[in-house]
Structure formats: C-alpha cells, structure tokens
Amino acid sequence: MRTRHVNVLIALAAVMLFSFSCFCISRMTQTSNQLTNCRNHILEFKEKMLHLKNKTERNRQELIKALSKVNYEIIQRKNMSVNLVEKKMNTLGNNETASNAFEILRFFFPHLRKVGRIYPDVIIGKEKTGVSFALGISTVNRGNQSYLKQALNSVVSRMTPSEEKDSVVIVSVADRNEDYLKSVVDMITKRFKRQLMSGSLEIISIPAFFYPNILHVQQSTEDSGKSESWRIKQVLDFCFLMLYAQPKAMYYLQLEDDIIAKKMYFTKITDFVHNITSKNWFYIEFSVLGFIGKLFKSEDLTDFVRFFLMFYKDKPIDLLLGDIFQVKMCNPGETPEKCAERNKQIRIRYKPSLFQHVGIQSSFPGREQYSKKI
C-alpha cells in the first residue's frame, strides 16, 4: 500500500516537473522571439540612423560646397572690382570736378555737345586724388604681342611705399575691343591687386562716342588713311587721359605701354623736380623718344590739350609738343638763337633717360618698330 502511494507521488511529481518544463520552454521561446524582434528593431533603427547620418553628411557637404562657391564668387567680385568697379552713366556724381575737365572737348567736337556726361566708360580703382604725381599709360591691342604687364610691373615695383602712396598710375584702355579690355582688367586685378586696393593704380576705358566721325571714316580706307587715322586717334587718346589725370595730382608723367622704367626712376624724378631752382619750366623730358617720359605741371595740362586738339589732324603729338613751345614761348621777331636759349631754360632735359623702349610690335597693326635707345 505504501509503495502504491509512493508511486503516485512520484508520478505526480513527474507530471508537475514535465508541465513546469513545458511552461519554461514556452516562456523561453516567447522571450527568444521577443529578443529577436527587439534585435531586429534595433538593427532597423540603427540602419535608419546610419542612413540619416549619411544624408546629413551629404547635405552638410553640399552646404559647404554652396557656401564655398558663394564665398568664391564674393571674393572674385571683390577682386575684379576692388569694390569700386562702376559703369559710368551720363549722370553727374561725386566726381563733378573731374567730369568738368572734359567739358572743353565740346568746344572742339560738335558731336559731343549732344551727349550728357563725358567720362570714362569704366573705372576700376579708388579714383585717388590729392597726390603729387599722376602717371598715365595708354594701351591698345597689339594682336598677339603685349608689353603692358612688363611695363606696369617696372613702373609700380620700382617705387618705395611712400612714393606709391603719393602717386597714382592710370592705365587707359583706348581700344573698343571688349575682349582686350577684359584681358587688361583680368591681368591687372590678379597681378596688381594690392595697388588697386590702395588706390595707387586705376584702370579706365575711353568711351567710343568720344571719337569724331572722321576717325571712323578713315579707318575704313586704304593704308594711308589707316595710318593717318591711327595717328589722329593716338593724339585723342593722350588728350583724354591727360584730362582725366589733371585734377588728381600736381604733376603728370606721360608713359606708354611698351617701356621699362629704370631702377629708382621715381626717386630720381621727385628729387630732380624738387631741386629745380626755376619754377617757370615748361615741361621736363625724362626720355627723348616720342612722347614718353614727359613731365608736365597738371595746372598746364588743359592748355596743352587745347593746343593738341586744335591741330590733332595735322601732326603726331610729339611734334605738336615742339610746336606749342614755338607758339607760346618764342616772341615775334626773336632770333632763333635767343629762342633756343630760352628753350634750354624751360624745356629741361634729364640725363640719362629713365625709360627704355622695348616694344617691337607697334600699336599700328602690322607695323614693327626697332628704336629702343631713349
């Protein structure tokens, strides 16, 4: 009997143990499934976060590129214009004094009486005034050859900081070829950015409407007419540049785009001018070739321009420079010897020359020039 009870108890215990094992296995399976689902959710969340991170990184990179592009365009625009590029319109502005210097052109050219403001088309620079010296360089397209960069580098690099501060170099683009104007602007804004920013260097372009109809007509004729047209245009180009420079400085130095300035040229010029005992000098020659290296008092420039414009059709500007001396300085009935003696006192020549002519390709298309000794 006792054995029977023991067996029943054992059987009951076995049933309970089996039931408990089944329950445990079921719970473990359920927990395992839940863990699997949880792990899948974690992996899915991790994948979404990774995708979001990658998308955010792409957006960040795109944003950086966009900002870099904007900054680059801002810098380029700043470099190109030095914050001072203007397309001059026919309306009066702050530079009314400089604009008034061009008013004498209306007297000589009737077609200019119909236009509004006479002023350069483009000005790049700070339009600096109140300095001692203005240096003018007129430049035109010479085809495949250009000496401007070399000339400009020698002119600006051979000044001391104080000399640069007390001067302004003006590059006048006297060419209607817009590609050439752009190439000059690009070269100067990249190579001479500091000088532009300081105001010691400017770029201007002469408006096409400035030139009279006779110039346009002669440009379409044969070689003789083209040569005459080139000579006439050269006189007009110099006159426009001189009028622009006149209000800026006490003295004006005429240069060209195919010269090399010698070492310490500017120091020698300033020392020579300041040490001249006579104040009645007409102009000073720092070069004997053509119109290069001629120094004028700015207060006299208007008189020179008036004379040049009266005879711009007749002679090159360097010959007109000799004629104005005869007209203004030689008295009627005076002997040539006496006039020549006065010439030495008021037409002063500095030796040795401070500028070397290097250009072989002339500004006249197809013509070469080999005169380098100045």
Strand % is: 5-15%
* Count of discrete domains: 2
Task: Sketch the topology as an H/E string, one letter per element.
Answer: HEHHEEHHEHHEHHEEHEEHHHEE
Helical percentage:
40-55%
Low-confidence stretches: 80-94, 361-368
GO molecular function: acetylglucosaminyltransferase activity
Keywords: Signal
InterPro entries: Glyco_transf_54 (IPR006759), MGAT4 (IPR057279)
Protein name: MGAT4 family member D
Descriptors:
Spore Coat Polysaccharide Biosynthesis Protein SpsA, Chain A, 13 helices, alpha/beta, 11 strands, 53% helix, 374 residues, nine-stranded mixed sheet, 2 domains
Can I get a quick summary?
The chain is α/β, with parallel strands linked by helices. It folds into 2 domains: 32-84; 109-357, Spore Coat Polysaccharide Biosynthesis Protein SpsA, Chain A (Alpha-Beta Complex), CATH 3.90.550. It has helices at 2-81, 96-101, 105-108, 148-157, 161-165, 178-191, 193-198, 213-218, 223-245, 265-274, 301-310, 317-329, 336-346; strands spanning 86-87, 122-124, 131-139, 167-173, 201-205, 249-256, 259-261, 283-285, 294-297, 347-349, 355-357.
Task: Report what the structure shows.
This protein folds into two domains: 32-84; 109-357, Spore Coat Polysaccharide Biosynthesis Protein SpsA, Chain A. Helix content is 53%, strand content 13%. The chain has helices at residues 2-81, 96-101, 105-108, 148-157, 161-165, 178-191, 193-198, 213-218, 223-245, 265-274, 301-310, 317-329, 336-346, and strands at 86-87, 122-124, 131-139, 167-173, 201-205, 249-256, 259-261, 283-285, 294-297, 347-349, 355-357. The strands form two sheets. Strands 1-2-5-4-3-6-9-8-10 form a nine-stranded mixed sheet, sandwiched between helices. Strands 7-11 form a two-stranded antiparallel ribbon. A hairpin with an 8-residue loop joins strand 8 and strand 9. Helix 9 runs antiparallel to helix 11. The protein is rod-shaped, with a radius of gyration of 40 Å. The relative contact order is 0.10.
